[in-house]
Amino acid sequence: MRNSVSNSVTVLLSPASMSFLLKSGCSALLLLFLITSCSVPFRNQKPLSPETYESPVSWFGADTGHYLFKSAIDLMKNHFSGITVVKPVGEGIFRIIMMTETGLKIMDLEFFPDSLPKVHYIMEGMDRKILIRTLTRDISLILMNQLKNESPAWYINSDDPTVRTALYSINKEQHQYILKDDMRKPSGAKLARKNKIKVEAEFFGNDQCGPDSVKLFHNNIDLSIRFIRIHE
Amino acid sequence: MFIRLILLSLLNFTSPAVSAQNPDRPLKDVQSFKTKLELMTGKVNTIESDFVQEKNLSVLSNKIVSKGHFCYKKDNNIRWEYLQPYKYLIIISNNKIFIKEDQGQKQYDIESNRMFREMNNFISGCIQGDILKNDKDFNTMYFENERNYFVTLVPKAESMRKMLNEVQIWFDKTDLTVSRITMVEAGGDYTKIDFVNKKLNTEIPVEKFSFK
Lengths: 232, 212
What we know:
A: 16% helix, B: twelve-stranded antiparallel β-sheet, globular
């Protein structure tokens, strides 16, 4: 995570205080979205034939029950922590529920392969379009729920041929998934718009136990999200 | 009011799913119960208890269970510690609140922050029974069975009910301590916290409430 714990107001997560913090955070977020940008998306990459590899697969397989994570969101100087449930409910369909440590639900979202996420519930104060759009886009990058009917373009790293990238173009955005060796589950992901990498994510885990942790951060705004698996 | 409900969630929840266990006999002499509760809280200097928190989500077939330890010492020293499956600690003492988690720790002045002030008032109000006097924010109903007094708090504000339909507090008839709290959400999901292995008036070292 790039950010340290700052205003650890998560406590018992007062919606009132969270509402205030989020409102102030959202305004700054919007401003930063408008005035900043970032880096170069593709460097030292050689294209490969499209059929070279099988498509990458999500860490969150539809054949599993559910995943439980300790989660933390750092937005500007605000820190929110809690628990997140990732429940695959079908091919490319996921239910994501975030709540406080004490069990109070913060948001309940459902992701689909070919339509916008559905907001089942979001706590008052967090129901800001820009925040919902940003969070759902970030989570979607991690879930890989929009890739079901897509075939990626493949690239290989010129400096390290064991590293390859699957590139998907979705809604004027490029979703890149970095894969090492023969793994079909990515070790990293990037979201680029207009040739600028906006969001990066890292996955940690293995095939046997699934994901251990996921870290995601924005390059153009001070926003990072971290999920650390809770083994029940 | 939000804060109060969240704090209630700290203590325990139940829902329609557990309604079969709910006492359904209305309490006839509410004033007598309130008086007894006030007398009891006057005699209690410390409370120590384990707790088991269950989060029930309709999308999951099994519950999310976390466990921990709770300590209270007069006046207004509270330690709320999650031990399984993750560690998370909240201490309220000397007008300060301290939070410790994997990513770090932080402390705040209660008086400098309305939220913390309300939180502190709520917790002590719950322990001392003052929460039941809050007619402004909740419609309160009283029930009983052989073992428990059972109070339901229904938020009056519609905005609040979008988040929480009802908060239920169970008092053990033997010692009038809180034995369960349930918070029922609008969609039917709920969180339940059971207090077990309760000990009253034991010696709790002051270090339990120090920040380090």
